[in-house]
Amino acid sequence: MKPDVTAFFDEATNTVSYVVRDPSGSACAIIDSVLDFDNAAARTDTSSADKIIEFVRSNGLSTEWILESHVHADHLSAAPYLQDKLGGKIGIGANITTVQETFGKVFNEGTEFQRDGSQFDQLFEDGDSFHVGQMRGDVLHTPGHTPACLTYVIGDAAFVGDTLFMPDYGTARCDFPGGSSETLYKSIQKILALPDETRIFVGHDYKAQGRDYYAWETTVGEQKELNIHIGHGRKLEDFRKLRDDRDATLGMPRLILPSIQVNMRAGNMPEPEPNGDIMLKLPLNKL
Hints:
It is built from 7 helices and 14 strands. The chain is of the alpha/beta class. The chain has a 6-stranded mixed β-sheet with strand order 1-2-3-6-7-8, with helices on one face. Strand 12, helix 4 (181-192) and strand 13 (199-201) form a beta-alpha-beta unit.
């Protein structure tokens, strides 16, 4: 089955969100939504999510799933806002508990912060399946960028999050806590084992050098042949050196500290202070 896929690109965070529709009905899933965030003013806005809501409503769609490919470090998730407006279950990989344990310590969260993934409606394991209308979705656990990364394969489309980028940009970084270039390599092999014609939808695009437009759709076959980090059958040791050397030159994402605090809570904000204000922490010298 070939799902209808509509992309929503957020240039402020270079994130691509997707609405995936069953072509034989009205059911849909939303993947990797964005809550707009002004870091300097610590102010949120729902403009990006509202575009998705308008699209879903204007097309008479029924939202069954709001899916996260992983705990994003570069944007805040709008999952709770979308769920309130459209319904649907919020899903993520079962290894969210590892991320919650790691960053619960980084942010010195108290015992009231549950580290069991209970903030989400569904925790997916490798090999699990789900349905969007009549379409079956299959779950691949594809860690390496983070421990909880998933690829959602729905019909002929694979939504890979940050694991792969467009072939001319390469692959995800692996230097976050719990990341591993060797693990990422093995995860990518699982994706490349899908049929060559499988459509791949990436989670970000940054305009690779020499390309003056944004792009987010490719295929397994194109990744095998053209990906600058993993293509042409690159071996594990070569990939590890390339990836680790590149990661050593990268700074932390601009929104990593607010993003992870929110996203490890399924897009919810921390509990308000006694005066009713919501605070985000900036732990010094932790990352």
